[in-house]
UniProtKB/TrEMBL annotation:
Protein name (record): PAS domain S-box-containing protein/diguanylate cyclase (GGDEF) domain-containing protein
InterPro entries (UniProt xref): DGC-Regulatory_Protein, GGDEF_dom, Nucleotide_cyclase, PAS, PAS-like_dom_sf, Rev_trsase/Diguanyl_cyclase
Domain named PAS: residues: 2-78
Pfam families, A to Z: GGDEF, PAS_9
Highest taxon of the lineage: Bacteria
GO molecular function list: catalytic activity
Species the sequence originates in: Halodesulfovibrio marinisediminis DSM 17456
Chain ranges of the GGDEF domain: 166-298
Amino acid sequence: MDTDFYKDVLMALSDGVYVVNKKREILFWSDGAEKVTGYSSSEVLGKRCADNVLCHVTAEGEELCTKGCPLRSTIRNGNLAEADVFLHHKLGHRVPVTVKATPLKDQAGKVVGAVEFFSQLSSQDNFLAELEKLRNTALTDRLTKVGNRRFGEITLENLTRKASDTPYGLLFVDIDHFKHVNDTWGHSVGDDVLRMVANSVSSGLRTGDAISRWGGEEFLLILPSSTVQELVTIGERLRMLVEKSWLEYQGTIIKVTASIGGAMVTKGEDVTSVLQRADKQLYFCKSNGRNMVSIDDAILITNKHTGGI
């Protein structure tokens, strides 16, 4: 069988596949890779995967292109490598994937490159499937394709009726300095930023969590069966994913950050009260440097820098 046969097989896979040489320059890019990342082969061939293409980060925010890269590890030691990471999509947001890297060797057994397979994590697939069901209903935000405010209100009403059995937490996610984005780049780019943030935040949620666009540049996240510590952990992960996202416009990289405030519902508490407590924590973030997370009485200040745009 010739090489075209194997190329056709790789192209037929729904998962992403790409091949690199020892310098990690991309030599082959499958149709599945384009589907998952948004990048076509013409945009990535000849580039290194770290050249503003995939730029993997861990759930803790560690950038793997300079340290801990599965491809680099495979090329160096000739062993298989696997990791769960968030890759960078062409539209700016982060996508959760499992990556598996395997070495490519010549006839003498010398490593000459590597191939990486990556697939979206199943929890995200489930979440996207749920969003797909919402897309054709009155409960979807037309711009970002997440739930709209009415969807959030209905979800809260349902949880409140079961609050004694199912504790839940809320997170408000608000894009920092969003007016500056609109004033500087225009509302079309502002819309792209809203979509980017919505997708990155969605990618960091658990199966069963809900996201709605509450208004303007603010999103409400509803997290059933949560604890205060889980709100802190999830909030920090989402803050990191937004900070590590970017989009390109007319040759300029546009980045934003987000402030996140949250609260756990207490027994017998009504929706208005818990929303007010979460909003108070969001205000605390906005008043103390932005790009940070504050959860009711468990305050976590993660980064006082406002980020760059």
